[in-house]
Design goal:
With 222 residues, the chain is mainly α. The protein is built from eleven helices and no strands.
Length: 222
């Protein structure tokens, strides 16, 4: 049985670790994703050895920041999913949440999300389960949206692929959007609406759209 001192020490370590992750996030936000451990420690006004003691190495710190960043994004995605009707509006809100969170700190996004465990050539121990949870969230919305729509053209096995494809498309689009000069990027709402529309209806001329402007343009061309 553990005594009270051990419990208090555990709480102290957890709180200290939380504060170090936040300090590292702030340092990367200010200094950029290539910031070294020395630079991060100096920005946090502590020693590099403290970060090594809590995180092992830079990759461990990177994973901890990724956990913090993806937890924040996941909360935003759940809020967006709950705020809409489970259909196109929910999807648009979710895409907008991704763009908004990434744009809030592109440096942190690159450090914690885009580059997390890239050496392994995979999504990494944080991103892989995170993206799968997002795919399951999308799959649930798709199932509910199709429930009252009658027979579909695709089997359940094929429809199972759509949420995973959607996650990959949105992630690639967010990274390309962030890489564009800020004054040349379309705004969040325009980008989110376009991505959601492409995911649901495609980009071919004459496809169905919920955008009145697009419908008017299509009518004028005919």
């Amino acid at each position: 049985m553990r005594d009270g001192r051990s419990t208090r020490w555990d709480r102290h370590r957890q709180e200290r670790r939380r504060l170090l992750v936040r300090a590292a996030r702030d340092a990367v936000h200010d200094l950029g994703p290539a910031a070294s451990m020395d630079e991060i420690a100096a920005h946090a006004r502590t020693s590099k050895s403290v970060f090594y003691r809590y995180f092992g190495d830079r990759a461990g710190l990177q994973r901890a920041v990724a956990q913090r960043a993806t937890a924040h994004l996941e909360r935003r995605l759940l809020e967006a999913a709950d705020a809409g009707d489970g259909g196109p509006e929910s999807l648009r809100r979710m895409v907008a949440a991704c763009l908004t969170v990434a744009a809030a700190s592109p440096h942190v996004y690159a450090f914690a999300v885009d580059r997390e465990d890239t050496a392994s050539g995979s999504g990494g121990p944080v991103l892989t389960p995170f993206f799968e949870r997002v795919a399951l969230l999308l799959e649930d919305g798709l199932t509910r949206a199709l429930a009252g729509a009658g027979p579909t053209l695709h089997s359940p096995a094929v429809l199972h692929l759509w949420p995973r494809a959607a996650v990959g498309m949105v992630r690639s689009a967010v990274e390309a959007w962030l890489a564009a000069p800020e004054d040349e990027r379309p705004d969040v709402d325009t980008t989110a609406a376009a991505l959601a529309d492409w995911l649901l209806h495609g980009v071919a001329p004459g496809h169905r759209s919920d955008d009145p402007g697009a419908r008017r343009a299509g009518t004028a061309q005919r």
